[in-house]
Amino acid sequence: MDDIMTSTTAPPPIETVRPPVGIVGAGVMGRGLAQAVATHGQNVILVDLNETILRQAIEQIARTVRAQTLMGAATGASAAGVVARISLSTELGALAPCDFVIENVVEKTDAKESVYNLLGRTVAPDTILAANTSTFPVAEIASFTSHPERVIGLHFMNPAQTKPFVEVIPGAATAARTLQRALEFLGSIDKTGIVVADAPGFVSNRVLMLTINEAIRTVEERTAGATDVDRIFVSCFGHAMGPLATADLIGLDTILMSLESLRTRLHDPKYQPADLLCRLVAANKLGRKTGQGFFSYGGH
Questions:
Q1: Which end of the chain is more exposed for a tag (fewer CB within 10 A), N or C?
Q2: What is the CATH number of domain 204-282?
Q3: pLDDT tens, residue by residue, 67-120
C-alpha cells in the first residue's frame, strides 16, 4: 500500500488586525500625528467637528508626504497609501473601535472636559486616552473621565510627523500598564518617550514659552528686529530654528493661550504675555497658518 503523503508545511500565520488609532482634532498637531501613525502602517480615525478642516487636513497630509518623498526624507510610504489608512469623521462615536486615542483639542478647560466626557461614553474602559497637551496638568484632565487610570499626557513636538522625541507625563492616577502601552505605541511609530512629572507646562513649555515671550519683548522694545533675534539663536547657539519662527510654526494664538494658562496655574506674573503677541493675535496674524506672524509665509 502506498504511503499517504502528508504536508509538513506549516499553515500561514493568521494576521492580527490592529485596532485603529483615534486622533481628536485635525489642526496642525492632529494632522501631523495622523500622518505619523499612518506612515507606520497603522489605520487612523481622525475626528474634527469641522468638515472643511478635515478635508484640508487630508490634503495637507498628502502634500507633505509627496514633498518628503521628493526630498528623500519619506519612509517609503506613498501619499496614496498614507491617505488610504486615514478615515475621517465629525463624530466622536466613530472612535468606538479604537484602543488608543490621542486628544489634540484647544487648551481650554471646557473644551477638554466636553471631549473627555464624550470619550468616556464612547470607547472601552481600557482604551488609552492620551492628552497631547502643552500646559494642562494630566491629573486635571484625568478628572474629566471615570477611568483616570487610563489617561496619560503625550506632548508631541511640532511638526509631529518628524520630531522623534515626546514628553510622556503620567498623572497621579495613571496606571503602570497605561505608561507601558503609551511607550510601546510611541515605539511603534519610531518615537522615543521622555518621562517627566506632571506639572503645568511640564519641562518643554515651561521653559520654551518664557523664551518665546522674552524674544517677543525684545522685538517690542526695539532691542532687535525679528530676523536678528532668530539669527542669534540659530547662529550663536546652533538652534535649528529661532524662537520667533518657532512661535509662528506653533501658532501665535496657541502661544498666547499657553502663556495665559501657565500664568494662571503657576500664579506667576513672569508668564504675562507680551503686548505685541496680544496685538498680533487680535489682528489674526497667527504665523504660518494665516500666512503672517513675525515673518511672512507666501502660499501658506
A1: N
A2: 1.10.1040.50
A3: 887 776 655 578 899 999 999 999 999 999 999 999 999 888 999 999 999 999
